[in-house]
Design a protein that fits this description.
By secondary structure, the chain is mainly alpha-helical. It has a domain at 71-249: Cytochrome Bc1 Complex, Chain C (Up-down Bundle). It contains ten helices and no strands. It has helices at residues 32-51, 53-61, 75-94, 104-114, 119-146, 155-176, 182-196, 202-210, 217-249, 263-269. The mean pLDDT is 87.
């Protein structure tokens, strides 16, 4: 039986062709590491051609900063890193946690701490990371206030930051009950009772947090859902809006830096 002729392969698109050899390269042949790098660059270019994400990246990362920017301006980034750490460690803890007040919650925490590989380390990062995040949020808000970064046109960003501060405290409060030991149980009762003393909405807020008139299974499930689903979703959305406004409006120069009063500016004012 005669064999069919082999058809030539279709030509490779220009975007996927390897670039011309650089001066000094032997016969234009690259090693495996260079081939892997080139493959990664090709894939990134392919995605960027269809999404144009490089423009967004340049808009976010390559921007001017005021003179005098120092380490105080890294408190916001440090807070964001603390939140990401909390999110990652929280996901791992949620894989083992059981919101059952009849021993399941406490037993799952004990199991993670004593038996799961690196469980104590992950739980420690989540436990102490919550305190670190609260401290960083307050420091970041203090720096913003002292540097006058809440003034026009950044008022909306200041409001978003205040809401993020409140949500961070809500995260810390709802997460404190989840181990469901004696200390967490009674401390949460005190906290909910304090909320109940607020004017007008206080009693309704206490009933909402308890899920009824008394602490029980509904209370733990409600705290768990607020801690894992509701508040993190709000924080992620508000962080996105916060970063967008920071990039759009820019950062404020330190109060001890004076604006340049050059001759061109004097002529423009005249």
């Amino acid at each position: 039986m005669p064999r069919l002729p082999k058809l030539p392969a279709p030509p490779l698109p220009a975007a996927l062709k390897a670039p011309p050899a650089r001066p000094g390269e032997e016969d234009g042949r690259l090693g495996p590491i260079e081939d892997a790098k080139q493959a990664g660059i090709t894939i990134v270019d392919w995605v960027d051609e269809r999404t144009s994400l490089s423009g967004v990246g340049r808009w976010l990362l390559f921007r001017k900063v005021p003179k005098g920017t120092n380490w105080f301006y890294t408190l916001g980034s440090a807070t964001l890193f603390a939140f990401l750490s909390q999110a990652v460690t929280g996901v791992f803890l949620a894989m083992y946690y059981r919101p059952d007040p009849a021993g399941g919650a406490y037993e799952s925490i004990r199991h993670v701490t004593n038996e799961v590989f690196l469980g104590q380390f992950v739980r420690g990062m989540h436990k102490w990371g919550s305190s670190v995040m609260v401290v960083l949020v307050f420091l970041h808000m203090g720096r913003t206030f002292l540097f006058g970064a809440y003034k026009y046109p950044r008022e909306l960003n200041w409001v978003i930051g205040v809401v993020l501060l409140v949500l961070t405290l809500v995260m810390a409060f709802t997460g404190y009950l989840l181990p469901f030991d004696q200390r967490a149980y009674w401390a949460t009762i005190v906290g909910v009772n304090i909320n109940g003393t607020g004017p007008l909405l206080g009693p309704y807020l206490s009933d909402f947090l308890r899920g009824g008139g008394e602490f029980g299974a509904t209370t733990l499930s409600r705290f768990y859902s607020i801690h894992m689903l509701l508040v993190p979703g709000l924080i992620i959305a508000l962080i996105g809006a916060h970063l967008y406004l920071v990039t759009k409006l820019g950062t404020t120069a330190p109060p001890w830096e004076k604006a340049e009063n050059s001759a061109d500016l004097r002529e423009a004012k005249a």
